[in-house]
Specification:
This protein is α/β, with parallel strands linked by helices and 182 residues long. The chain has a single domain, classed as Metallo-dependent phosphatases (Purple Acid Phosphatase, chain A, domain 2), CATH 3.60.21.10. 16% of the residues lie in helices and 29% in strands. The strands form two sheets. The chain has a six-stranded mixed β-sheet, covered by helices on one side. Helix 1 runs parallel beside helix 2. The longest helix has 14 residues.
Length: 182
Amino acid sequence: MKLFFASDLHGCLTSTKRVIEAYKASGADHFILLGDILNHGPRNAVPADYAPAKVAELLNEYQQDIISVRGNCDSEVDQMLLEFPMMSDFALVLLDGGKRLFLTHGHLYNQNKLPPLKRGDVLAHGHTHFPVAECMGEYTLFNPGSATLPKGGNVASYGVLSDNQLQVVSFSGDVLAQTHIE
């Protein structure tokens, strides 16, 4: 099973189009959105090409493929535009070998406030806009970065899980971070 991850689109149509193109090119089986989909949020500048309704229309075309969680900038009004559920604070996906992928945005659960994880699980979240793929001893931490508002000098990115390999990838194809799930 191949999974594609994106986070922190913040209503930018240009970034969403790039994410969709990367998703289609990846051949992934599922498209995971880790929150902050439509709204730019009060702490962020309004992104160029800010068009939340158009972003919703585009994402709705892939509703059958999407697994999504709520970000701190997502609201019930956003859910009214989206045709896939996105108001859950977290979701669990079972991986091969009984490992779990704990999906969340990162404002409620993160490496400083861990959810209930067991050895070998993966904590996948966005929120910080920093790309991370790192073994933390008992669990693996994964953040695909932001497709719209990368921080800390990073570039816009997305994530892929394939053959137990987690990668954060720039839109130019550079691998920014990677780790293997044991």
